[in-house]
Amino acid sequence: xxxxxxxxxxxxxxxxxxxxxxxxxxxxxxxxxxxxxxxxxxxxxxxxxxxxxxxxxxxxxxxxxxxxxxxxxxxxxxxxxxxxxxx
Length: 87
Known about the structure:
By secondary structure, this protein is α+β, with helices and mostly antiparallel strands.
């Protein structure tokens, strides 16, 4: 893909796992450095991935994924239940 070939590195902050995994796979294929960051509920992450030198993005651990019931950006603007406001 011409886009990935023309980049020195990729920085992403996408909002879903499918997009993160796709971008990680493309960076691996085109041997590009990926700087990934984002949130999953209350869990934040930042990771530098160097193709064929560091581990590829594999997504959150199962227990982190289970904490994700509703997006934090939605909660901050539209909390609808008391458990959205307490931890």
